[in-house]
Please model this.
Amino acid sequence: MSVIQVQRKPLSLAERTYIPQILSGMKTTMKHIVAKPVTVNYPEERPEIPPGYRGVPTLVRDPHGREKCVSCQLCEFVCPPKAIRITPGEIPADSPNAHVEKGPKEFEINMLRCIYCGLCQEVCPEEAIWLQNVYSSSGYTRAEMVNNKQKLYELGGTLPDTHLKWDKKKAAAEKH
Model:
């Protein structure tokens, strides 16, 4: 096996002083100094959320302040990581919402398990679960990462509802 000796080309004066490389680096630095920043000062500045973003799942109330969830448990069954746990409860007969089938006694979403797939929102027949634009949830313990019913309603709030299914049912029952 023969070895071929390769002769190195001698460096020019500019290459020996590294001036072209330094100027190239300075050009790149100056270009980024005047360019628009690509980062934000989080949490003081919030990034713009793109349409269709799926954030934290929450429970919402109808415009009259009634719980929209009727404890059908479809979201619990369809949830791939089993992050949702519902305990159905009865609505008292003397309640103003007695015409509604059921209500959740307990409703929990484990945010450590949730994969933000949105299947719970898609399957909900009452449109009671909405994925909000909240993207940062934090806690010091595992228990703090389980959103209970009260916290889910605080995050969700009230959304406009054009169906008013239960109001129509109540009005029909009062006619007869």
Summary: The first helix runs from residue 13 to 17.
